[in-house]
């Protein structure tokens, strides 16, 4: 369908020369930012009491707009260039399970839940702040973050399990060592978990500290273990970001080599490469260096031809 394909182009692709596409994208960005500002202002009691009705109308308008956007994205998702499954049902379900689509759903879901479940206003505001992640569509950095979390999900989950095991063991150990001396902060293993979290993360607030010799030695060991264990998820994310950047450069290189196969970049190819560069978040100077390197490699690998007959000379 032409309308469905056009919807996919406007919502999912950055058409620099498409005026209407720019209007749609800029309008959505502005609406997201206004929502975040409104949520922040609602937390000020005096402002919320004075403009409660205005906040409500703006929330309804925003939810309607985001709902239409979400449904339009799901409807047109099977016409995306990177969608391998063209089945109307399976393709849309796969799209709905992507990180960005889940963010879009979470952005509107709390509003509809209030009709069936009684939610605390502060909790509801916290959920609505997740709309800020909708900017990931327009920010290569946030998009890269979501990609890394998705690809490294298993490794991050494994690290989280190890941290949870260490947390329980730390709380249990300090409970045994400090329970009799300090029954209030270390009266139970769940109660001792606050100390374990603060110690493992090396924050050291100092509100709860061990006083026995065994507790101090145990606390020092847990702090040393925490330095290494807390760094584990950071290392996984850093490795994922490096791999993500490498993959983006490789994708840009593939397109550039294909466009430079004939040794010339026409206007359409230049525009497509520029659009891809912005989408991948590659610096313009770096993209220029990549193009120059590819062009030089193409010239070096090109066969030498006879100036008279035009045949290649081996």
Entry summary:
The chain is mainly α and 314 residues long. The chain is 72% helix and 1% strand. The longest helix has 47 residues, at 213-259.
Describe this structure in words.
The protein is mainly α. It has two domains: 2-137, Voltage-gated potassium channels. Chain C (Four Helix Bundle (Hemerythrin (Met), subunit A), Up-down Bundle); 139-314, Orthogonal Bundle (Helix Hairpins), CATH 1.10.287.70. Helix content is 72%, strand content 1%. The protein contains 13 helices and two strands; from the N terminus they run αααααααααααααββ. It has a two-stranded antiparallel sheet with strand order 1-2. Strand 1 (304-305) and strand 2 (312-313) form a beta hairpin. Helix 2 (19-42) packs across helix 4 (52-76), helix 8 (140-151) crosses helix 11 and helix 9 crosses helix 10. The protein is flat, with a radius of gyration of 27 Å. It starts with a helix and ends with a strand. Residues 304-314 have low confidence and may be disordered.
Topology, please?
Elements: H1 2-12, H2 19-42, H3 45-50, H4 52-76, H5 88-96, H6 99-113, H7 121-128, H8 140-151, H9 153-178, H10 189-200, H11 213-259, H12 267-280, H13 284-301, E1 304-305, E2 312-313
Antiparallel strand pairs: 1-2
Helix pairs in contact: 1-4, 2-4, 4-6, 8-11, 9-10, 9-11, 11-12, 11-13
């Amino acid at each position: 369908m032409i309308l469905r394909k056009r919807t996919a182009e406007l919502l999912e692709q950055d058409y620099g020369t498409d005026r209407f596409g720019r209007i749609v994208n800029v309008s959505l960005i502005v609406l997201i930012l206004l929502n975040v500002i409104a949520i922040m202002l609602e937390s000020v009691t005096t402002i919320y009491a004075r403009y409660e009705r205005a906040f409500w109308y703006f929330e309804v308008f925003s939810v309607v707009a985001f709902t239409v956007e979400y449904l339009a994205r799901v409807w047109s998702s099977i016409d995306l260039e990177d969608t391998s499954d063209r089945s109307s049902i399976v393709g849309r379900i796969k799209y709905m399970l992507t990180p960005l689509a889940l963010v879009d759903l979470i952005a509107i879901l709390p509003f509809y839940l209030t009709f069936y479940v009684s939610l605390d206003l502060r909790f509801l505001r916290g959920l609505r702040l997740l709309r800020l992640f909708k900017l990931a569509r327009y920010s290569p950095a946030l998009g890269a973050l979501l990609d890394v979390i998705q690809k490294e999900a298993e490794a991050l989950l494994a690290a989280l399990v190890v941290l949870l095991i260490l947390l329980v063991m730390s709380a249990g150990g300090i409970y045994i060592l400090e329970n009799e001396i300090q029954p209030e902060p270390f009266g139970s293993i769940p109660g001792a978990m606050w100390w374990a979290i603060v110690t493992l993360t090396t924050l050291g607030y100092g509100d709860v500290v061990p006083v026995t010799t065994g507790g101090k030695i145990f606390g020092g060991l847990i702090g040393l273990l925490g330095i290494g264990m807390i760094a584990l998820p950071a290392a996984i994310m850093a490795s994922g970001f490096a791999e993500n950047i490498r993959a983006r450069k490789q994708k840009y290189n593939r397109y550039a080599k294909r466009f430079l196969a004939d040794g010339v970049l026409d206007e359409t190819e230049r525009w497509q490469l520029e659009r891809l560069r912005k989408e991948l978040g590659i610096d313009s100077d770096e993209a220029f260096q990549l193009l120059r390197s590819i062009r030089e490699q193409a010239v070096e690998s090109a066969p030498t031809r006879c100036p008279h007959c035009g045949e290649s000379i081996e």
